[in-house]
Amino acid sequence: HCYAAALYFTYYNFCRPHTTLTKERGGYKTTPAMAAGLADSVHDIRWLSDLVTESMPKSGKRGPYKKRKTAA
Q1: Which of 13, 40, 68, 72 is the most exposed place for a label (fewest CB within 10 A)?
Q2: From residue 57, how far is each of 21, 54, 63, 66 by CA, in Å?
Q3: Which of helix, strand or coil describes residue 2?
């Protein structure tokens, strides 16, 4: 649930232009992150998916499995 909320808030603040902010900035599309000075442009979903992909741990070779001792 926390990850879903984080994705939503990131999309809301960095990807989705808001009409109330657009009117204040002279007609060009503006996000809350742009209004706060955190971003220079409107980001797209690909940017957001790349952030998620970069933060995932790299998969590597797994070690050997331990065999169970069977009861005799």
Answers
A1: 72
A2: 37, 8, 17, 24
A3: helix
